[in-house]
Design goal:
By secondary structure, the chain is mainly β. The protein has one domain. Helices cover 12% and strands 39% of the residues. The chain contains three helices and twelve strands; from the N terminus they run ββαββββββββααββ. The strands form two sheets. Strands 3, 5, 6, 7, 8, 11 and 12 form a seven-stranded mixed sheet that branches. A five-stranded antiparallel sheet has the order 1-2-4-10-9, with no helix packed on it. The longest helix is centred in the C-terminal third of the chain and has 12 residues. The two termini are 32 Å apart.
């Protein structure tokens, strides 16, 4: 028996609840009431490891449900610990993939290989520098002054968001239910 305390996050959507086996921060979690929105944004900590994440969906009112996963990558620029994250600029999105269910009835989240998230769009370096200047400041442009491509240090490309789409039908009415959980990951560390 482990003494390790396991934290988790539960989202109550009214007709169903979703529990993630890791702890996240979010304004939605402070009220502990029914979430009346179709999209919930959760903030991960540096310790969050999505490949060890599983999702439990409980409902007496939802049928034919499924959970699919995708992710988004963004550019981050490193500078001795500090970083400039370009999360509102160019991205790559992974294909939506259905999550597998384990023997306990839990949906197992996927980790992504480098190949799965490769193919970042071609970026003009002058355009990148202009965006860096606008969003991070001139000192960050100086950090990437001699960079020739996105493959050059101090530029990195990493996952900044995971998406979990829940689809199902409401029992009795067959109304389509769609919810989206977005987990925002810290970058550049």
């Amino acid at each position: 028996i482990s003494d390790k305390h396991i934290n988790y996050t539960t989202l109550n959507f009214g007709s169903f609840t979703v529990t993630l086996n890791q702890e996240y921060n979010s304004d939605y979690l402070k009220s502990k009431s029914i979430i009346k929105t179709d999209t919930v944004i959760l903030n991960a900590s540096l310790e969050t490891d999505i490949k060890n994440e599983y999702i439990t969906l409980l409902s007496d009112n939802l049928t034919n449900y499924s959970i699919t996963q995708s992710c988004e990558t963004s550019i981050s620029i490193m500078n001795e610990g500090a970083h400039c994250d370009l999360t509102s600029w160019a991205h790559v999105y992974a294909n939506w993939t259905p999550l597998q269910i384990n023997k306990s009835g839990k949906y197992m989240c996927m980790a992504y290989s480098e190949k799965a998230i490769s193919g970042f769009p071609t970026v003009n370096m002058d355009s990148l520098k202009a965006h860096v200047r606008k969003h991070c400041g001139i000192e960050w442009v100086n950090v990437i002054q001699d960079v020739k491509s996105l493959n050059d240090y101090p530029i990195t490309i990493g996952i900044n968001r995971y998406f979990f789409k829940i689809n199902g039908l409401s029992k009795g009415t067959n109304i389509q239910i769609k919810k989206l959980i977005i987990i925002e990951m810290p970058m550049g560390c």
